[in-house]
Each structure stands twice: as C-alpha cells, then as structure tokens.
Amino acid sequence: MTKITRRSILRGALGGAAVGVGIPLLDCFLDNNGTAIAATGQRIPVRFGTWIWGCGFIPEKWVPTTVGREYLMPEDLAPLEPYRDKLAIFSGFDVKLDGVPNKPHVTGCLGLRTGVPVPNESVKAPTFDVLIGQKIGGDSRFRSIEVSTSGVERSYSYHAAGSPNPSETSPLTLYRRLFGEGFQDPNAAIFTPDTRTMAQKSVLSAVSEDRQKLMRTVGASDRQRLDEYFTSLRQIEQQLALRLEPPAPVQDFTKPAPPPEVPLNSEMGAVMETHRLMAGLLAKALQCNQTRVFNVLLSDTASNLRREGETTTHHTLTHEEPVDKQLGYQREVSWFATKSMIAWKDFLDALDAIPEGDGTLLDNCLVFAHSDCSIAKSHAVEGIPAMVAGNAGGKVRTGYHLAGKGDPITRLGLTVQQAMGVQVEKWGALSMETRRTVTELIA
Amino acid sequence: MTRFLALPSRTRLAEALSSRRRQVAAALLGLGALALIALSLGSGEPDPVGGPTVLRRLTETQYRATIADVFAPDIPVNARFEKPVRYEGLVAIGTGTSGMSPFAMEQYDTAAQGIAAAVLSAKRRKDFLPCLPANAKAFHEECAREFLSDVGLMLFRRPLSATEVSRYVGLARRTQEQLGNFYTGLELSLYTMLVSPEFLFRIEQAKPGADDGTGELDAYSKAARLSYFLTNSTPDRELLRAAGEGELDSRWGLSRQVDRLMASDRFEGAVEAFFADMLQFDRFDELSKDPAIYPAFNSDVIADAQEQTLRTIVNHLVTEDADYRDLFTTRETFLTRPLGVIYRTPVPTRGDWEHVVFANDANRAGIQSHVSFLALHSHPGRSSPTLRGYAVRQVFLCQHVPDPPANVDFSAVEENAHQKNSTARDRLVMHSTEPSCAGCHKVMDPLGLTMEQYDGVGTFRTRENGAFIDTSGSLDGTDFNTTAGLAQALRNHPETPRCVAERMFKAAVGRDITWGERAYLDWLDEQFADDGYRVPELMRRIALSRNFFAVSGGDDARGKPQVVTGRTSEPGDKS
C-alpha cells in the first residue's frame, strides 16, 4: 500500500498559515487490501455500547428452550429473527448479593455493571462501560454518549459514586450536541484550521498547571473528584485538538437533519418514537467517530412506561396485576416486555442500516443489552436477561443461546471488557468475583 | 364558587412588613455591643466540633447567581446543567460528593465561552474594564493586570497570588500575539478562569495548624461558606474585604456581615433555594403525567405550582417572620390562573399572582396540601398514599423509611387491585395485614390515606372509582380525617422543627453531621424553639455559631461512602 497518507498531504499543504484546502477523496485510499480498512486508510474502530430496558422479562416468552445455535426464538425474541446470526442470548446468569440488601431495580442493574452489588446508588467501582471507555474512547470527540428515551435523565453509567454520566432525553438536544456547534463534517470539501481554536487550546493547558498543588490541599476522596475533573477537562482539550486536524472522510456519511422537538412523555408509543430518533442519531454519530462508547436507557429500571389513558405504569403493574390464570403470567406487564424487544430490534435496525467496510456499523459494534432484574414482580436478580449484538469487528462470536446455569453475571462483564481490549483478568467482588471468561463469546 | 379571599397586593403588604422589620433591626443594632457581649458569653453553645473541609460544586442556581453578581444579570449562561446529585435528602450535601462528568465539563466550557465573549464584547466591555485602550493591536500590561486580578478575586473568592496574576496576564498576552487583539486576549484569559476548578468548585481551606484537633476555616473559605449560605451566591466585595482584613475572625465583624447579608435582597433567594432543595423540586424536570387523565396539568401548572409553594414559604418565613411550624397549617398562599384550574377555584387576575387565603371549606391547609407536593409524590396516572406518606416522613420529618423488601409476595395485593369501585384504601389493605409490609407501610400509608382526597395532580375529590373515599388517617398517635387535622398533627410533631434545623445546618456546611456535632444540633434545636421557630433567626444562629466554621482533622471521617466490599448502609440513616 502506498505510503502517502491523507494526513501527510494535509500537513504539507497547511504549512503554518491558515489556508483553505480542497480535499480530494482520492481513490487510492479506498480499500483495496482488506475489509477492515476504510476509505481513509485507517482501521475501522470498534465501538461498545449498552442498551438497558427496565423490569425484566416474561421467561416463558423469552428464554429459548434449547441452547446452542439451532435454538427456537420464543415469542418475545421472534422479532429479532433477522439478527439471529449477529445476536447472542444469555439466560440464567445471576447477580450474587452476598447479603447486600437488594434495592429493587437498582442493585441488580448496578451490580452487573460494576461487579459489586450495592444497596443504593453509591457504586463502589466504575461501571464497565466507563472502564471500556478509558480504553477505546479517548481519541474521539466524546468519551461516551448517554441517552434515555422515556424522559428520565438518569443513566447507569458511573465514573464513581456521585458521578453518573447524565443522559440526554431529547432527540433535538442530542442532535445539537452531536451535530451542532463544534461538529466537523468529515466529508466537507474545505478544511480551514481556526486560529482562535488554537489559541483556546493553548490557554486551556494553563488550567492543569496547578493540578499537583491543588491535589495536595484536599483529602483523599476529594482528590478523586478533582482527578475526575481533570479527566473531563482532557475531553475538552481533545475536542479542540480534533478541530485543528482535518477530519478523516467517512464513506456514505451525510449529516442527518435535525429531529423534531418531542414533548416529555413516558407513553410507550411516544417512547418508541423518541427511541428510534435517538438511535438513528447515535448511529450517525458512531459512523463518523464522534464517540465510540454509548449507553442507551429505553426505560428506567423501575419503568415509568405507560399506555395511553391507563392509570398504572409498567412498574406498578408488575406488582399489582394478577397473573392471568390461562397464560400463567401477567398479561399487561407482558405487553411492555414484548414492546421492549421490538424497540431493541429498532435499535439494531439503526446500527445495521449503516454500511461500513464490507458489512455494517453493527458488525463493528459490541452492544450489551440487559435488564435490571429477571422477574420484576419479585425483583429477582437471578437470571437477569442479557444479550450481545454485533461482532466488534470480528472480536466476538454470536448466533447462539447460552445458559448461565447460575454463574455470576460478572462473567459477561469480564468477557466484554476483555473483548474490548481492557487488561483485566478477574472482575467483581466476593461471590461475583470471577476469572472465567465466557469463551463462547471470544472469537 | 370562590374558595378564597383576596388579600392586599403582595408588594403593599411586603412594604408594610419590611418597614416593621427595619425598625426591629434598627432597635437590635441600637442595643449594639451590649447584646453582642451577652451573646458571646452566654450562648451556651457546645464547644466547636467541626468536620472535614468540603470541596463543593456550585449548584445551577449558585452558578447563575454568581455570574450575575460578578458581571451583570444580562450576561448569558448558555448551559444545560445536569440533574444534581442528592445525598442525605439534599442537593446541598450532594455538592460535597458529586464529581464532574465529561458532559458537565462540556456545559461549563460552553457557558464559559459565552460569558467571556459577552463580557469582553465591544458593547459591554466598558462596564467591566478599568481601562479601554483604543489601540487593540497592542498589549496593555497594566490594564490587563488590573482587570484580571480583580475578576480573579471575584471568581476565585480570594485574591490571586502574584504567580497567578502573571500567568493570566501571560495568557492574555500570548493570545493577543496570536490573534492580534488585546480584548480577545483578555477574553480567553477570563475563559480559562471560568473553567478552572477553583471557580467551579468551592475548595475550602483550613487555617494553618489545624490539622490535628479542631481548627477553623481560613478567612476566605469562611466568606464563601457564609455567602453561599445566606445569599446563595458568591461573596461580594465588602465581604471579601472583611475577610482580607481579618474581620470575620471577630464576633463583632462577623455579626456585622451576617446582618448585612441577611438584610440584602438575596437573602430571600437563599431561603427559596434551601426549600426548593428540601422539597426536591428539581424532580419536576422528570415529572410526566398522563395528559389523557390529567389534561389540565401542563408546563404552566408545573412551573406555577413550584413558585406557589416557594412564594408561600418566603412570605411566611421571611416577610412575615412567622413560626416555621405554621407552614403546615397556613391557608395563606399565592395563585395564578393555571393553578386555579387544578385547585378548581377561579382566579380573576390574568397573568399575575394573587395573594389569597383559602377558605375554611376549601380543604387546603399547609404546604403539604399544595399541588407541588401532591402532584410530585404521585404516579403519572393516579395518586399514591404510599408515595405521599413516604415523602412527608422523609422530607418534613427527616425520617428514613427503608426500601421495600425485594422478595415481597404481591399476590394478595393483586387480588385487591383490580376490583371495581375500589379505592386506594382497599388496594393497600394488604400493606397493613401482611407482616413483611406492615412494618414500614404503617408509618406511610395512614398519613397518605388522608391525602387521598386529592387526585394524582392535587385536585380535591371525594370519590375514587365511584366509591366514597374514607379519609381517616393518623400520624404517630394522632388521628384525623381532614386536611386540617393532618396539618395540625404535622405542625405539632416534635420532629418537624428539628428536621428543618438539622437540614439547615447540613446545607450550610455541605456535609452530613459528624457524631460529635449531635450536642450542637440539640442546642440549635433548643434555640430554634426559644426563638419561636423563626427560620431567619435559625440561620443567623448557625452563621454566628463557632461550630459553623469549625474544622476537624481527618478527611475520611466524612459521611460519604467509603470504598469497601461487602455490606454497608448509608451513614446517618434513621429507621
């Protein structure tokens, strides 16, 4: 392959002065030697994301009766049939409480994401998406992007106790953050480095000059918080640095149009529409490397989803609706569980719609989907449903159902971290501590 | 049917009352040194104990107020502040534990750029700069030094060191050289201050030599703690001057500043901010109601409902200087037209607030009967005796109700839930008969069941699903079946004033109390009673007490989660 990279041409052309440069999309950069090379001559990055839905599932409608590749998709998974090969289904993996009080809808969700169950929101370790972000998220414009589609601003992505990454709840504000001020169209014909941005980047570096002095004046826990401040500040510096370089062109990318303003609404139909809009924007942002890590919250873990005109929310129904004697489960609750899987398919559709290399964006992602509990009625954290979608650019294997048989669910968290390149041999605490990689998942 | 009487306009009433307050204040000042000597000698305040110094993030309202005070109210703050972290019931305590996510930093960065650009804009710079060199192509060292050291003093709440001044002047110079404009140089230097940790956090420092045993905050940390407590904003020049000249170390100097801050317009804002925090009004940002069930509950109602309660509180506590406990019985309030729809009562004035008193038969008494409380603690499509009972316990009585056990058997609840003509009482009957539920629900539900006479947005009703609502309830041994009865019971509950006093101190110092501060809290509680439960007086006592500025060594004595494995519980929980 030729040694001339696009960037070296640009460096030569730029010299020092601010000049506008027309960038020809040269054919020699189009991939002629392998699928992992994009038009830019750079490898296509792998991305990691999580996708959470609240209040668990109806086991008889979700858990396949057999394991392995030739399993039959039960009713609630049926919409996902088109993604059979790109999807791994995990049932029967547990959060082990070790006597920690189970705060309904919280302990299970944060326990599986941090490896350490806690009786409240005060996590004792970062969530695994943050650990993965530290490995793969540093070069992009945003370290991670969090979205929530039912109007609640919370997320289950934590840097530390007291430091959640807040979720975007409006498609329009998400759009503005991703594609508004500061966005550089990767396929723009002209790139003009901005001298003011250079000056801004230069003054910003002064903020860190007193870092050590400042750290010495505060106690240990505050040092941790200041450290987080400086980490977040680095993202700003990174954003400025990226604006001083011509962005790498992205094949088949066009900047999306702004979405309509949608009112805050937890009605299921409105939530699914908001979710489709946000999934589309997120997919576009991943395509042009604005971020490599994301967390999507379809519905909060104590789900506030509702049906038009009904007085009872999804979460309340899980506790109040009688089990239908004929069906053997709660009919109304099941409606929300079914819809949640249709939304999950919508999400995969958004990722799979974007061509990348010789496949799609989804093929270069690892999306870990999970709920907060298995059977919401009893807040059970045993057998929390989980799925992996996408092949992370060939790093993971999918296309099967695997039964966990009561293994700690941290095995999944450990394995996805390893697949994403995090150097970790064991993960989790007490009964949740594990060194056992899910080998079926690693390609 | 009119359910309230209109009162004279708020301003006239406020004028009359505040002139009375001024007279009282003058009389107090007249007593002068004598009273102060008496105060310092005979206060009976337990010896200062103190806790760790705190690194606190500015809240959204504090950030906005600070920018308005340092520069001007029309300087824009274009940022989306994330949902604040609440800890031990208060965002004010959460500011001492919350971190800084990349999202938050992005927002502060955007805000800082906008503020710096507006301050140094051709139109506004004359209002903020000590000098206006006509030749923007040259660098004006003196002008830059003067501006940056002054704005640094105001933003960092302390004078800048010589090294810091040189650094910011250097940044301005370098930028001027790069971009060729003196004002742009100042702009980017100011931007740097606005994103630095010493502006975004209040980093408290103890006086040297206080590492072991009890010491106290240094002068500028005192000024910041005092100012954010009493004005919810940054120290002004006078306070910084007093700090610089050591006046805050003397009882006389301190009380002069406390009086001054409490007499300022901003004091009301501080009271309002504290109660908005205690009442958890930030949660309204996520509140969604089913428009098919509650069509009148729109964004106007959501905004006005919060303001109604805050106006009522400020009017009662500050303007009228009345007994805190009467907040739970008062029928005096403020209404707008959109609120009138929910309260089912006509409000004649269009587009403005009416100062009113609910009629005796209007079934409203106390702020717990306001729409803001009743709607916030309900489900999207219906009311909830449990959520309301829980909120009264947690918000007004500072009591901790444990989470429900995870393994509850809900089958009995289910059987009752979907019968026709049922009320919440029918649905919740299992809460009191099932032993695993009864322990907690018997402290929440009886209270909430009286509040069942309001639907999920707070409109009064007598029936649910066609059936008459039985409103009998109780609170710790007092039975009632009316709004007024509940109001009286809550007013007379011994934990009601104690709770607000404790929260006020925690909010002031930005942390949970330490074990050794219990005695001080008991003392504060007694003083509050002696002062007739006047909240401004409570705040004055806190600000003047030696415990307020006290610092004890040992960072990790702080009430915040420690990194350990295994079972823990939140410090300070009560059951």
From TrEMBL, chain A:
This is DUF1552 domain-containing protein. It comes from Novosphingobium endophyticum. Pfam families: HXXSHH. InterPro entries: DUF1552, TAT_signal. It comes from the Bacteria.
Automatic annotation (TrEMBL), chain B:
Residues 217-343 form the DUF1592 domain. Residues 554-575 are annotated as: Disordered. Residues 143-204 form the DUF1595 domain. Residues 56-119 form the DUF1587 domain. Pfam families: PSCyt3 (PF07627), PSD2 (PF07624), PSD3 (PF07626), PSD4 (PF07631), PSD5 (PF07637). InterPro entries: DUF1585, DUF1587, DUF1588, DUF1592, DUF1595. Residues 476-548 form the DUF1585 domain. Residues 364-464 form the DUF1588 domain. It comes from the Bacteria. This is DUF1592 domain-containing protein. It comes from Novosphingobium endophyticum.
